């Protein structure tokens, strides 16, 4: 999503920019944690084990249950911050749809749809387990989730890579503005 140029010379813009930056930074942090833990679980515990997960095998000193907890906690946080991120950019989504700019913004639209599907195929197995549902159905959703998550990871990397300059520029502007406010007191 394109970010507006930041005019940080008044308090409202500084607060909005600071909030936008904080949410994006949280997405980066929890997204990285989610991706790392998901990859560890998928490649070290799910793949090639033919239904027998070696739960006590350690990866970086953490067993399957530890990685699973890290993954679940990061998923909860990323879901919360994605909701906030979507609310912040809701006007952008409406404009893209109203003005039929989907083709021009295909990467972000695909990323958004993929995120929703990965989230759903991740949350559904939790619900199935909590309600005592069928294990085979649960594993099917987990397999779909694992495969879609790999595609999502590629889109997330591309999305963040396009915005690296924004992170550094915004951080620098917020730091300058914060110093300016502190010195003017």
Give a short summary of the structure:
The chain has 185 residues and is mainly α. 77% of the residues lie in helices and 0% in strands.
Defining key terms:
disordered N terminus, 6 helices, mainly alpha, 77% helix, 185 residues
Descriptive notes:
By secondary structure, the chain is mostly helical. The chain has one domain (11-183). Helices cover 77% and strands 0% of the residues. The protein has six helices and no strands. Helix 1 (11-46) packs across helix 5 (135-161).
How would the blueprint of this fold be written?
Layout: H1 11-46, H2 64-88, H3 90-98, H4 106-130, H5 135-161, H6 164-183
What is the overall pLDDT average? 87
**DSSP E strands, number:** 0
Low-confidence stretches: 1-9
Query: Largest beta sheet, briefly?
Result: none
Amino-to-carboxy terminus distance? 36 Å
Q: Secondary-structure element sequence?
A: HHHHHH
Alpha plus pi helix count: 6
